[in-house]
Structure formats: C-alpha cells, structure tokens
Design a protein that fits this description.
With 411 residues, the chain is an alpha+beta fold. The chain folds into two domains: 2-193 and 352-409, FAD/NAD(P)-binding domain; 198-343, Translation factors (Elongation Factor Tu (Ef-tu), domain 3). It is 29% helix and 25% strand. The protein has helices at residues 15-23, 41-45, 74-79, 82-91, 111-124, 179-184, 245-250, 270-283, 288-296, 300-308, 322-333, 389-409, and strands at 2-11, 30-33, 54-55, 96-98, 103-106, 127-130, 137-140, 146-149, 153-162, 193-195, 199-201, 213-223, 226-237, 242-243, 259-263, 335-342, 350-352, 360-361, 366-367, 370-375. The strands form four sheets. Strands 1, 2, 6, 7, 8, 9, 18, 19 and 20 form a nine-stranded mixed beta sheet that branches. A six-stranded antiparallel beta sheet has the order 11-16-15-12-13-14. The protein has a three-stranded antiparallel beta sheet with strand order 3-5-4. Helix 1 (15-23) links the parallel strand 1 and strand 2 (30-33). The radius of gyration is 25 Å and the shape is elongated.
Length: 411
C-alpha cells in the first residue's frame, strides 16, 4: 500500500476544494483527493454550463438568500465578498460580465474556463490532485495526525479539509457517502434534503402547460394550516411538476404533506379583486375565460384549466354570485396543491442539511472540537438561492479556510 504525507489534505475537487488549494500556503505540501476521474463536475453544470459565479448586488443583501444560515455565515461572506471574487478571477485573466439581472458570469459563458483557471492556479500553487480515490476510512491519532485510507493508499496529514459537497447530482461524485465518515469522527450532521429542486404535487394537473412561465408569482407553503414560507418570483410549468426560480428557492422549506399555494395574479387584496372583477365581468360582453384573461393578462391555457374546475361557464355572467366571483378569484390567487415531495437529489442543484453550523468556528471554518478539521462549501448545512449564491459561499468559505490555516501556521 502506497503511503503519503501532506501538510494539508483536501477531500473533494469541486469548486470549494480547488479554491481552498489555490489559496493555501505553497510552502506547505497540498493534495486533493477526488473520488471520480474528473474535477469540478458540478461547476461545469452551474448556470446551465455558463457558470453563474455570484451576484453583483450589495454583499449586505446576501444574507437573506441563505435561509436560517444567513446570519451565521455573514463574516465568511464579508471576508471574501463578491467583488473580491470577481477581482480574483479577473486577476487570473478570466474576464467577468454582469448581466442586467446582476448575475455574474465568465465573459466566455463557459464553466470550463472557470475550471481551467482553478486547475492552473492549483498547478501554480504546486497542488497534487489524486483521482479515483474513494475514501474507505478516516481516523485521527493521538499524535494529532489524520489518517485517510483509500483502496490502495494511505494518506496522513496535519490539516484535513472536507469539500465533499452534499447529495445533489450524485453521478458527479457528490453522493453523500462521505457523511458516514464524518459521523464516525463525531461530527454532527443535520437531516439531508434536496434543495433548489422542482416540487411535485398530488395529481399534478398542468402537463398540458409545460413550457409556460410567469413572472411575479407569489408562492406560499403551509404546514398544519400555518404559513411557514412565502416567496415571489418566476414560476415554470413542466410536464410533471412546478419549477422556476421561485419554486426552486422555496423548495428548501417543503416537506411531504405540506400545502403549496400559488397566486398567479399578485396585485390586489382578495376583497378588492372580487369587487372589481365582478363589476368588470358584469359590464363587459364575452365568455368567462376570455374576460378573466382580459382583466388579468394571464395565459389563456392556464385560465382555461383553472376555471374549468369551477364549472361556471354555463352560468350567465350577470347571475354570478359573490361566492362564485370569490371562487374565480381564488382559482388564480390561491391555487392550492398537496405536496408529495420533490424531484429528488438527481434533480436538486444543492443539498439542504449537512454539517451542523453550531459545531463550526466561522472565523476559521474549523470544527470547534478539532482545530485541524475544516469544512468548506456544500458539505456544511448552508444552501443559498439560485443566482450565484451557492458558488459565492463555496469560494468564500474556501478562502477563509485557507487563510486561517496560513495564519495558524505562521504562529
């Protein structure tokens, strides 16, 4: 069995692992162990292959895009913010562009260029990358040395950096298998759920609407009749589930048995809308579906589907009661479905859950019980909204980790 010793050993060659290696002290030995034969596979998938690196907004506004974790990771994001990230890559000769929606991409719109930049910077920093190294065991000795075994090799190191990701897109190697080794080391892991993932509901009725998207849609999640989350944004109908940014961003909060409530017309309160729509219907000629469409400007196919459930087309518009009008209003402002789950980890962009944040020292990204054990990126219980927030945290946590190791070694 081959044996290796490194000052710093990183598990996982995704964006967080590679960026950690790029920023570690090159005077120390550095090695990355990668389970698969290729680095950065999820990075190549980000932003549909175009790699949405971060968001160009004020870093102070980033915290609200990470759910409950936002306040805890504030100092990490501040120490290496979005402007610093853009500067890092442009200094590495990879120009960035900022779109009108403030999403930041490489000018080439190719994730491959981001990956190649990271790999080149790793080479410049004299980083070894060992591929096809699936971890079989991890141990920590009384000599304060970590011992990591693979099928035919044994690695020892002073500092162990975990950058294994979560469970999303498992074919890329980020399959959650490493969590068992962390549990064996006494690291607390919260329950793992798919996040940034389409939501599936009972008897999904909108297969015929696949491809239709709407802006400014309000989506709410109810559990035991109590609203637990609410977001506004764009929605997309697919052949079998709800998707689009507002659905993906709220998916971290859902559990099977919750109710999904959707307002496609998010402009007026219910009573005002009932009164004004009722008056509009009674003073204008036409069919119910066409008039509601004229009033709301919602897609005809969506309204036909929603209103068909009410069976009101046969009633003369002048005979519609207040209760009938409320049913019409609710059909497009409170479209309610029972959630049966999500499209799963195979379709999830990130994982909700991971290493418990209360066990982490966010000044260093080390474990509070072992200052030689570090965590960066998605392996932590941190998941952000779509729009570059997850990659920003991956890079920020990697940077803070690498610099804290450098500072510790200089003592």
């Amino acid at each position: 069995m081959k044996k290796y010793f490194y000052d710093n050993l990183i598990i996982g060659a995704g964006p967080a692992g590679l960026f950690t290696a790029c920023n570690l002290d090159r005077n120390q030995t550095i090695c990355i162990l990668e389970k698969t034969g290729k680095p950065g596979q999820k990075l190549l998938m980000a932003g549909g292959g175009q790699c949405n690196m971060t968001h160009a907004g004020d870093i102070k506004d980033f915290m609200e895009h990470y759910g409950k974790a936002g306040k805890k990771i504030r100092q990490v994001l501040y120490k290496f913010n979005n402007k610093m990230l853009i500067h890092y890559f442009e200094k590495s000769h990879l120009k960035m562009i900022i779109r009108e929606d403030n999403k930041v991409f490489p000018e080439s719109l190719k994730g491959r260029d981001v990956l190649n930049t990271l790999l080149q910077n790793c080479r410049d920093n004299q980083v070894d990358i060992h591929y096809h190294q699936e971890i079989e065991s991890v141990a920590y000795s009384d000599e304060k040395i970590f011992h990591v075994k693979t099928k035919d090799r044994e690695y020892s190191c002073h500092n162990l950096i975990i950058a294994t990701g979560g469970c999303s897109y498992p074919t890329t190697g980020s399959d959650g298998e490493f969590f068992k080794h962390l549990r064996a080391l006494g690291v607390g892991i919260s329950e793992l759920y798919p996040a940034l993932v389409p939501i599936e509901v009972k008897d999904y009725p909108y297969t015929s609407l696949a491809g239709i998207s709407l802006e400014n849609v309000k989506v709410s999640i109810k559990r035991d009749s109590k609203k637990i989350a609410s977001l506004t944004g764009d929605i997309l109908f697919t052949h079998k589930n709800f998707s689009g940014p507002v659905i993906l961003n709220i998916s971290r909060d859902i559990r099977p048995g919750d109710q999904l409530e959707i307002s496609y017309y998010n402009h007026q309160d219910r009573e005002t809308l009932r009164r004004e729509l009722g008056e509009f219907l009674k003073r204008n000629p036409g069919t119910l579906s066409n008039l509601v469409r004229e009033y709301t400007h919602l897609p005809k196919r969506l309204l036909d589907t929603l209103l068909a459930k009410l069976q009101l087309e046969e009633i003369p518009l002048s005979n519609l009661s207040k209760r009938d009008i409320l049913k019409i209003v609710d059909s497009f402002t409170a479209d309610t479905h029972w959630i049966i789950g999500t499209a799963g980890f195979n379709s999830a962009m990130v994982t909700s859950g991971g290493v418990l944040l209360e066990e982490i020292d966010f000044k260093t990204l080390s474990h509070k019980k072992n200052e030689q054990l570090f965590f960066v990126g998605e392996v932590l219980d941190v998941d952000g909204d779509t729009g570059g927030y997850n990659l920003q945290f991956a890079f920020s946590s990697a940077y803070v980790c690498s610099k804290s190791i450098h500072a510790y070694n200089k003592k």
